[in-house]
């Protein structure tokens, strides 16, 4: 069976977040805003300035910070109270995942990401952590968000590191899709008890994603560093948020996510961002799955040019051989690893990690220090 899932509507442009209330009003009249505590401080009451013109519509606000776990979702649910017909998430991946859990009760979901660091905003997936911070639960919801509003002015004003991490995450999408295609592995589109594989539409989205990064990635990073909104930035924000988001769900993850997520089992593993680990691990995928050298180096050049980590040092890791084995074992146990056509043992995975770091150090040596 082929399966396709997608966000309902997607709007992107500078200043659009100012109209979040008006857009939320298209879906219902009792709104709950779940806002990242830092973002709430930054935006102040501007999110709510349109309510005077929205007739009888009303809103409640809860702020969120910290890790998302079943416990913290319940805390937000209690604080927010019942009866909301629209949930509006404003912030990064964790706030968005909390809002998805709340909207699973039947409310409409509007998502306003304030960084382009991951592909969480458009997907139907929530990632929950244990109270100790380990990733331990992936929830696939019946529906994707109804509307995603991406304000590129807000994203241009955020630190470049977030956009770079999003590029790392987005870079994996196409190559992981190819792994899945080779093995016929199931994608992440909700289809009850069945499982499906990628449609032609899903594969086309993944290809558009990688092509956009190669075309516009470095220019977008420069635009972000200068806090400017340019067509290149708009293109890469769309690649990081929309193409990568519906891409990964529709074509599936594999070795890059298996390895990137496994890095959190060693100390310091959490000091890098998800997309940074996945970007590095995409080079590992290309090495492990025996891509031609030119293709591996092309991807590595892109990472260097976009500030995506290519060495252990840039990932803030200084792994001992024990650490490398721990990462390898955790990666081999990951569900996503099973989508890759290569079968490796622990020693071979360690070799792939070391080869990736050596490639990265060589690239950095040739191209100088990272730009961020
Ligand atoms: Zn990811």
First-residue to last-residue Cα separation: 44 Å
CATH fold assignment of the largest domain: Dehydroquinate synthase-like, alpha domain
CATH architecture of the largest domain: Up-down Bundle
Strand content: 5-15%
| Poorly predicted tracts of residues | none
Number of strands: 8
Main β-sheet, in a few words?
6 strands, parallel
- Tally of domains: 2
Would you tell me the overall average pLDDT? 94
Total number of helical segments?
A: 13
The CATH homologous superfamily of the largest domain corresponds to Dehydroquinate synthase-like - alpha domain
Rg, Å, rounded:
20 Å
Bound molecules: zinc ion
The CATH class of the largest domain is identified as Mainly Alpha
């Amino acid at each position: 069976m082929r399966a396709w899932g997608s966000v309902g509507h997607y709007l992107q442009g500078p200043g659009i977040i100012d109209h979040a209330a008006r857009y939320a009003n298209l879906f219902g009249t009792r709104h709950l805003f779940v806002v990242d505590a830092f973002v709430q401080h930054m935006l102040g009451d501007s999110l709510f300035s349109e309510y005077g013109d929205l007739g009888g519509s009303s809103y409640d606000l809860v702020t969120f910070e910290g890790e998302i776990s079943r416990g913290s979702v319940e805390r937000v649910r209690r604080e927010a109270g019942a009866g909301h017909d629209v949930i509006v998430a404003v912030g990064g991946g964790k706030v968005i995942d909390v809002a998805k859990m709340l909207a699973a009760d039947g409310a409409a979901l509007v998502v306003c990401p304030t960084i382009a660091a991951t592909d969480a905003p458009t997907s139907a997936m929530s990632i929950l952590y244990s109270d100790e911070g380990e990733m331990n639960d992936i929830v696939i919801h019946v529906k994707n968000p109804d509307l995603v509003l991406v304000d590129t002015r807000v994203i241009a004003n955020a630190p470049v590191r977030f956009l770079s991490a999003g590029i790392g995450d987005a870079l994996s999408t196409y190559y992981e899709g190819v792994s899945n295609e080779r093995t016929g592995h199931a994608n992440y589109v909700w289809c009850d008890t069945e499982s499906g594989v990628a449609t032609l539409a899903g594969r086309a989205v993944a290809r558009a994603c990688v092509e956009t990064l190669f075309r516009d990635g470095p220019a977008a990073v420069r635009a972000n560093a200068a806090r400017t909104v340019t067509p290149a930035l708009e293109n890469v924000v769309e690649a990081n948020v929309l193409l990568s988001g519906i891409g990964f769900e529709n074509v599936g993850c594999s070795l890059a996510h298996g390895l990137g997520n496994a890095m959190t089992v060693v100390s310091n593993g959490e000091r890098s961002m998800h997309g940074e680990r996945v970007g590095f691990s995409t080079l590992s995928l290309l090495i492990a799955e025996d891509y031609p050298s030119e293709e591996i180096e092309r991807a590595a050049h892109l990472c260097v040019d976009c500030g995506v980590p290519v060495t252990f040092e840039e990932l803030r890791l200084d792994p001992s051989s024990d650490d490398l084995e721990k990462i390898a074992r955790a990666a081999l146990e990951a569900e996503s690893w099973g989508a890759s056509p290569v079968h490796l043992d622990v020693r071979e995975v360690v070799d792939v990690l070391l080869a990736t770091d050596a490639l990265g150090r060589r690239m950095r040596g040739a191209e100088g220090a990272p730009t961020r």
